[in-house]
Amino acid sequence: MAHEIILHNFATSPFSEKVRLVFGIKGLAWRSVEIPSMLPKPDVIPLTGGYRKTPVMQIGGDIFCDSQIIIREIERRFPTPSVLPHGRGLPYGLGFWTDRPFFMASVPIIFGEIGHMVPEAFKKDREAMSPNGFSTEAMKSAAPFMRDQWRAHAAFVADQLEDGRAFLQGEKPTLADIQCHMNLWFMKNAVPQITESLLKEFPKVEAWFGRVNTIGHGKPTPMDSKEALAIAKKAAPEAKSASDPFEPNGRKPGDKVKVFADDYGRDAIAGEIVFTNAHEIAILRHDPQVGDIIVHFPRAGFVVTPG
Ligand SMILES: N[C@@H](CCC(=O)N[C@@H](CS)C(=O)NCC(=O)O)C(=O)O
């Protein structure tokens, strides 16, 4: 029997919301493990080898870190209906805009506003994972300028909808909608009044946002984190070794490497290469708790060093 899809996520996580909407478009059944939004994450780290961000997807003994590679793997395993009906490349590239500059405009607007209500432990956690720190005071000062930026990002979406189309690439939702929806969803949940005022000039964005929300999340059922660990322990990872003649640094299966994100949450994960290609690197690691595990990362946005 094929292994179930397990998403390690938490309800308010915007990057998890992307993946949940992909499940929605595809009508997939999946298991939802609720994970903490800050360290410690004792039932996540044995799976990832140190990657601490959210979400993480597990299929048996294969672990997928970062929404980019998670969505790519879901599309590979469950191609119909596709979230990329108009070409398979650029909607992923769009994620680099939504996940980085658009997201980095949203964060100070949100935490500049609600920073005083956020627990100290959360601030310390984010401080430790962010190269530029996490000062709610600094974010408060930056917020006015970030609102200007945020408005411009929202206007990119508004302009695309100007001709009256229902979704960004036409009459059906695609990954482009899911990418662009994320920051609006994040802002609307955290600071609804500010978001409403920023979107007032873009009624078509409001209407589109409502349509994307109706996609839903497919069919989730909860799973306990210990059950997910037991599944990983029992399962043999499925990824197969393959060489990559175009690997720019000549890395090959069996090489020991470290992989880490190049933005924030840069903890390095060590393992042996199973395969690489332009989009993905899969590394094998042995964990005392769950045995052999293959951890998959995107290439774009990640650094691979000899390890
Ligand atoms: N590039 C990552 C970013 C993920 C991310 O930043 N997630 C936030 C929560 S939505 C996070 O990890 N926060 C810290 C945590 O959950 O421990 C992705 O696309 O999955």
Give the helix/strand layout.
Blueprint: E1 5-9, H1 14-26, E2 29-34, H2 45-48, E3 56-59, E4 62-65, H3 67-77, H4 90-114, H5 120-129, H6 136-161, H7 175-190, H8 192-199, H9 203-213, E5 219-222, H10 225-234, E6 256-261, E7 269-276, E8 280-287, E9 291-298, E10 302-306
Parallel strand pairs: 1-2, 2-5, 4-9
Antiparallel strand pairs: 1-3, 3-4, 6-7, 6-10, 7-8, 8-9
Structural class comes to: alpha/beta
Average pLDDT score? 98
Number of helices: 10
Shape: globular
Helix and strand string, N-terminal first?
Answer: EHEHEEHHHHHHHEHEEEEE
The main β sheet shows up as: 10 strands, mixed
The CATH class of the largest domain is Alpha Beta
How would you describe what is shown here?
This protein has 307 residues and is of the alpha/beta class. It folds into two domains: 5-81 and 220-306, Glutaredoxin (3-Layer(aba) Sandwich); 90-213, Glutathione S-transferase Yfyf (Class Pi), Chain A, domain 2 (Up-down Bundle). Helices cover 44% and strands 19% of the residues. A ten-stranded mixed β-sheet has the order 5-2-1-3-4-9-8-7-6-10, sandwiched between helices. Strand 1 (5-9), helix 1 (14-26) and strand 2 (29-34) form a beta-alpha-beta unit. Helix 4 packs across helix 6 (136-161) and helix 7 (175-190) packs across helix 8 (192-199). The relative contact order is 0.18. Residues 13-15, 37-38, 52-54, 66-68, 99, 265 line the site of glutathione. Glutathione binds next to helix 1 and helix 3.
